[in-house]
Amino acid sequence: MSAFPVGYELSGGLRRKSATLLCFVLASAMVMGVTTYVDSFSIHEWDAVIDIGPIAMTVESGKTEIADRVANIEGVEKVATIDVSSGYVSLANKTSYYQWGGSVVSLDANVFTEFPDAFVLNEGRFPVSDSEIALQTSVAKEIGAQTGDIVNYTYWGDEIQFSLLQLVGVYGNPDVWSRGNYYYYSYYIAVVVPSLLDSTSLRVMTILDVDRSHVNAYDTFSSLSFLQGIEESIRRLDPLYGLPYGSSYYVYDLLGEAVNSYVWWKMSARLNQVSRSGGVGLLIGLVCFLAIRFNVNDRRYESEMLVSRGASSSDIQHIAFRELIGMTIVGTLVGMGIGLLISRFACAATGFFEFNLSLIWEEPFLVSIESIFFSVLAGGLIPPIVFFAYKMLYSAKKSVELETSRLARVWTLFRFIRWDFLIVILASLLMVAMYSSGFVIQTNPVLYAISGFAPYALFLGAASLVMKGFRRGANRLSHAMSSLTGYVPSMVGVRRIGKSASSAAPVAVVLVLAISLAWGSAAVGASMPVTKMNQARLAFGAEITFHLDNYERDRWDQFFTNVTLHPQVEACTKLSVVSATLAMSSMDYQGVSLVAMNPVEYMAVGYDYQGSPLNSSPLRGPLLTLDSVLSGAIVSADIATDYELEEGDTIRAFDESTGEATIITLTVVAIAEALSNGLLLDTGYETPYYGPIYFLDGYYWGSMEVGKNTIWVNAAFVESQLNLTHGAENLYCVRTTEGANSTAVGQSLLDSGGIDVITGNEWASVTKEVSAYLQQTSYRMDRSVDTMLAAMLIATISGGFLLYASEDIQARRREVALMRAMGSDRRLIVKTQGAEMIVLALSSIVTLTLFAPVLITNLLVGYHTSYYLFPAGVTIVLPWLQMIVIFLVFLGSITVFALLTALLSSRVNMASALNAAWAEAGPYGGEL
Amino acid sequence: MSNDIIVNLESVSKVYSMGEIKVPALRGVSLQVERGEAIGIMGPSGSGKTTLLNLIGALDRPSEGHVYIDGIDITGMTESELTLIRRKKISFVFQFFNLLPVLSAYENVELPLLISGVPEAERKEKVDHLLSLVGLAERAEHRPDELSGGEQQRVAIARALAKPKGSTSSVVVLADEPTGDLDTQTGIDVMRVLIGLTKGEGGTLIVVTHDPDVGKQMDKVYTMRDGRIVGST
Known about the structure:
heterodimer; A: alpha+beta; six-stranded mixed β-barrel; 28 helices; 16% strand; B: alpha/beta; Rossmann fold; six-stranded mixed β-sheet; four-stranded antiparallel β-sheet; globular
């Protein structure tokens, strides 16, 4: 029988339980907050991905008609059949013969009844006789056919068949059909009547839609199960199903692909955000550890008292564990509630600590089953895991101190090699190696992941050294501080920090990491838009760049006049970019961009690779030289390295665009780190997405190096030797006035006739690029989660300080009472507390000064804005005001706790405090 | 009142409130202790011994009656006045030693002298003297967790007598179960040091104890029951 009354653990220790509960709440709140935010935000993705058009699935069943049987499957709502065969189309009676192949279909009336949006006529009608054909819009465009034209329709049956058919209509399919795998199976190039289909390749395609109310973002698992159930039921319609070859009915589940696509997107978004939350997670783990330690130490006397009254150790263990489980359950539930609230807070964030509060209500709200599962897992498992880790650590410590085990010897060895020092060295070396390595190493996912954790490893090692420093240097520190704080406060207060059981050092560590992380988030939030702007300036060569259509040469001047007259245009100039070949004796040939310009004009328009206007950058001097030395050349550093060029050297470039080689001889007047050629229309995308739906959406790959392989030359010299109108890509570059929206300026210039003189829609603007970057889902999510985590950080350090304060009151009230019993007045007591806090704050600031730059640099370097390689990977912008506010907020939190601690500990009942038995009753002098 | 009376309690009562319930801990206790005397206070648990000690030590205030220390009525004093009384005239020795764990033995003994503003040279002389009297001169730099229970209590005794030069004769050392956490032999040793040192320095000793053997070493022993002094030997 237990020696305690039932429910004993539910009474008493309110302060301890409150502090512990707060720490436990943090774990589930963080996970719930992050996952719910991702879930809620993912609804935008869901809406986009799930918009697949009217057909949920297609089934190819050879020549067997199965529509009726498919219609009987539960969950299937609409069914129609399309007969499909292979064929080719081309425009007849034309000299240029261009043939297009694909699936040719025949449609019955049921298709139009059940799926009116599957085949939508853009023009004309569908064929009704064997002399007519309708083409898919893009196919008609490719072969150059218009309604009324005669189309040559060919297929390979038993023998080749030609038919000349009149094009009677042009139709479109839902956009999504041109994406992903669907593209390959269901790209229907033409519609003909059934008799024109190739009977040898004829197959029946069943198209169907399902009851989509069973498919929702809340429970994707059930949604997929529902769809997979239908797929399986269709496969089972094949009488031979189950034999080694499976089903001969091939089901393509477009809706299932969409749901899968969403699931993977969400999973990767969650993983990304959870991994970005690693630092906060580490802090929460640390605070939970402190909470457990506080609990165990706080209950030690009580436990020993109970043992002395006949309780067994296992009873006490059960009580402690029951209490822990109780607090874990409550902490998890409360944490989930708080997580839901802060996820709304994150939804309202439009940047780092920038809010649009109406979004709290307007943004979608989704709590998925997975979110609940992960939150319960985090909230429910972290405290028990930390508890057992603590027990193991304590037991190991005892064992080591008693030197009874092999562990003692291992520990001695471990201490001998100074593990923390070793970690600091290794982590530092790794980080230095990463930062100074090339692009290939920096973008290696494994090394990138390792480098992401390196600062935390460095931090843990450094924190351990700081704690040891506190312990070993407490006496010296107290002597050093005595002149500042007074002898008694220094002797008692400062040395308290060095007490091995004190939470002071861990709390200082928590504080430093919290401030560093919040600063890091602020720095990333401020640096990325500026980085993107500077990268766009280099990529485009100006604020706005128009790619001129060489065939519209006659209209350029009018356009240039329009641009010049625009009130928000500060300067503009034309660049002509020639693809040339560079050769030196004894060197291989190399393709380069020769950018021909008016140097003085371009100086007022362009930017250098760091985003500085050329007229105030180090390139100003070389440009003036280029203006006076007509045959001069400013060469990018990579070329100079490859060809071992120095200023004054001569280079020869060959232009073969006109069919015969023209040699241009240039003199190097300057070598620049990177030079713009103005040709790019974007700055690259964020992480490529591998989802099945967006497979062909045109992401850029590889590591295109921007600003390399470029030579700036004087147009006045080059145009005398080359035809720059036809042999070059011509760009018109514009700098707008300060504060102008370059996108709006560019658009208005296009609207006033500019669209006719540019190639396609090829123009780029810096603000358009930056705005698109800032609107990216991943960027918005990062900033919102950073905001949420910063709020969590404040809660985390509050938890840490609450523990410290609670531990402080308890452990120190006896000391305070004792000092007062010896005749100390309140002033001396407060000074003693103050001395401790001053040392804690000063040491935190010193550690912060050392660690924050490392973490911030690591965060910035590790944050990719593009898959292009820019010479300036990041432009570091430190938002001082925001950082000072963050520092003050944290400092304010500490001050509040310091004041509370001082207030509570000075209100000690001396009689009870001094007679209380909270003495060092533990077998190892008290606490771990 | 005689000048040799250093502690004088006049009809002192103390009532604790536990919510609505009033619990009388002392009921009209009167007691006089002469300077240089060593007295013991015995009685069962809950008889009011510790409460009596707290009132004499200015750690608590009486509900009724008056407490005089060295002729001064401390009953109505402010907290800062009580602080000065404790600094000059009161010292404590506790059952659980109550040493500051972050300080060495030397520094623990030095602390009351620092609080009293004693100059460094005098402090050093006094601390060295007291530590050698309690036999811990060799252990001066050790911290409490490096000392045995008996050694810690001897440090606490030395600390109790660390008062400015010339004022030890007006010091009242209050000891609450000073041997309660020690084994028998160590307890005997500690009591011998406590009594010898207090008397040697001219101080007055009041010891609360359950232990009859401790009582036998006192000049006088008062017995308490139900908040009253019911006898003396």
